[in-house]
Design brief:
It is a single chain. With 302 residues, this protein is α+β, with helices and mostly antiparallel strands. The protein is built from 7 helices and 11 strands. The protein has 2 domains: 120 residues, 60s Ribosomal Protein L30, Chain: A (2-Layer Sandwich); 121 residues, OmpA-like domain (60s Ribosomal Protein L30, Chain: A), CATH 3.30.1330. Helix content is 38%, strand content 21%. The longest helix is centred in the first third of the chain and has 29 residues. The chain is flat.
Length: 302
């Protein structure tokens, strides 16, 4: 065999040997068990809920409890059950204010600006303050010694959908009202009463900002004049018989009454009446005019 042939055979042998070694070694690498590195779960940042205590003081008198009135997100109903310490604090306030007729308790309800205002008040904070006011009135505190306000509160965080104590209290010396202020408020309400328009069968009433302020004015007046009542008038267009329209107007007035009761007005302070189609404010010859006549008017009666 020539040297050239031996040289070629050597190259061929090298190629074959390299191929066999490659298959052998890579096969082993492929069959090796690869260690699975567990991926650590992403930690979620939990924002702790805020909590505001039931605190109020004046001179030697004070109430200081960690427990307070609680409210669900976008709601103005006090969450039950109410802690017994809160009730005890309210009774302490009742005793204090009873002996201090020249003092008033200011209730400020907080709300987050991202909450939905499902109340008839200008803001959810005022609606929450009104709910607290009604609770305190039920425990014997005169409504004339209670003042309600609403305020947006930044940084409030709920705990499982509940705001803990979104309210603040302060005791102040009663400011004498300006002469004629109550009469001026009454005139403001009666000259331009709250009007609602909705069809029979609707499940909700939606108020705009102007209507919400009118409602707040009515509540404020009723708080200041214990002899006044809220009068709700039901009106219709002239479609149908007078008897049918009278019944329909009453139905609308009663629906509005239920709505106001849900907003915190006492049932005994609300009266309803129907005028049917007797008092139109627009022509009944057009659909637009008839729509204006189908209305509910909410006013005060002194």
């Amino acid at each position: 065999m020539s040297k050239k042939s031996l040289y070629l055979l050597g190259i061929l042998a090298t190629i074959i040997l390299g191929t066999l070694l490659y298959i052998k070694l890579c096969s082993c690498c492929t069959n090796e068990t690869q260690e699975t590195v567990p991926i650590a779960p992403t930690e979620q940042t939990v924002v702790p809920g805020t909590s505001y205590p039931f605190q109020v003081s004046s001179g030697d008198f004070s109430v200081d409890y960690q427990e307070n009135f609680n409210f669900a997100e976008s709601d103005f109903k006090i969450v039950d059950p109410l802690h017994q310490k809160v009730t005890a604090g309210v009774f302490a306030l009742q005793k204090f204010l009873e002996g201090q007729p020249n003092q008033t308790l200011s209730i400020t309800g907080f709300y987050d600006e991202n909450e939905e205002n499902n109340s008839a008040f200008p803001n959810l904070g005022m609606a929450r303050a009104n709910a607290i006011k009604n609770f305190m009135v039920g425990k014997g505190i005169p409504v004339g010694q209670l003042v309600i306000n609403g305020m947006a509160k930044s940084g409030m965080e709920p705990t499982e959908g509940i705001y803990l104590g979104p309210c603040a209290f302060s005791i102040n010396t009663t400011e004498l009202p300006e002469e004629g202020a109550l009469e001026a408020l009454a005139k403001k309400i009666t000259d331009d009463p709250l009007q609602l328009r909705f069809e029979t069968g609707e499940s909700k009433i939606y108020l705009n900002a102007q209507q919400r302020q009118k409602f707040a004015d009515i509540v404020s007046y009723l708080d200041k004049d214990p002899n006044a009542t809220c009068i709700i008038e039901g009106h219709t267009d002239n479609t149908g018989t007078p008897e049918t329209n009278m019944a329909l107007g009453k139905e609308r007035a009663e629906f509005a009454k239920k709505y106001l009761i849900r907003q915190g007005l006492a049932p005994k302070r609300i009266e309803t009446v129907s005028f049917g189609s007797e008092r139109p404010i627009a022509t009944n010859d057009t659909e637009a005019g008839r729509a204006q006549n189908r209305r509910t008017v909410i006013n005060i009666q002194q």
